Every structure is written in C-alpha cells, then in structure tokens.
Amino acid sequence: MKRRGFTLLEVLISLAIISSLLVTLIYTVNYHLSLVERQETVAVATLLAKNRMADLENKQESGKGVFEDPYGSYTYETFVKDSPYAGISEIMVVVKAGGEEVRLNEFVFR
Questions:
Q1: What is the per-residue pLDDT for 35?
Q2: CA-CA distances (angstroms) from residue 46 to 1, 50, 83, 96, 105?
Q3: CB neighbours of 93 closer than 8 A, spacing ≥ 6?
Q4: Residues 38-70: b if buried by 16+ CB within 10 A, e if exposed
Q5: Per-residue pLDDT tens for 39-72?
Q6: Cα separation of 110 and 99, whole Å?
Q7: Cβ contact 53:107 at 8 Å
Q8: How far is CA 103 from each of CA 48, 66, 93, 95, rounded to the nearest angstrom?
C-alpha cells in the first residue's frame, strides 16, 4: 500500500522558505513606510516654510517659533539680513521636524 502526502522533511523545508520570504517582505514594507514618512515630513516642512516665507515678504523680521496645530511638532526660525546690494534683503526660513530640516532663501526688495 502506497501512502500519499508530504514527509516531515518536505514540510519543514517549505516552512523555512515561507518564513524567509515573510521576513524579507516585512523588512521591505517597513523600509518603504519609513521612506514615505520621511518624504511626508519633508513635504509638509517645505510647504510650511513657503507659507512662512510669504508672510516674511510683507513683514520682514527675524524670529523663532512653533507652528499651530496640527503642525505643532514643526519649528521654524527666520533670518532677515541685508545683502551686499542696496535695497535688497535676504530672507531665510529654516523649518525643522523629526530630525529633518528644510531651508529656503529668497532675496526681496525692501
């Protein structure tokens, strides 16, 4: 009488292969989620810096602060300096969040 089915060795080998594939899949998903999170942080920081830069074009002043909720984890620092050219100021905005930093510079007429 011939028995049909899998041997214990075949089952163990298939489990080892499936386990290694699952570990690789989990690592890849976690890696890509961290990339997405970082890119989201940089994108939001860039938009906040552009918004702050637009505010500074009208009222040029240096300072530090924290954005309002829901962006309370984002901080900013602004610098207004005279440029070597008469009548032109340099505005710099630095936005920081979660170890990421975005810097924007712009030259404007006074």
A1: 95
A2: 73, 6, 24, 10, 12
A3: 49, 52, 53, 56, 76, 77, 78, 79, 103, 104
A4: eeebbebbeebbeebbeebeeeeeeeeeebeee
A5: 999 999 999 999 999 988 888 888 999 999 999 9
A6: 34
A7: no
A8: 11, 16, 6, 7
For residue 47 the two structure tokens come to 């938009």
Domains and CATH numbers, the chain: 8-109 (3.30.1300.30)
d(CA 83, CA 1) in angstroms, rounded, equals 95
* Phi, psi angle pair for 24, to nearest 5°: -65, -40
Distance (Å, whole) CA 10 – CA 3: 15
Cα–Cα dist 35/28, whole Å: 11
Query: In this structure, are strands 75-82 and 88-97 parallel, antiparallel, or unpaired?
Result: antiparallel
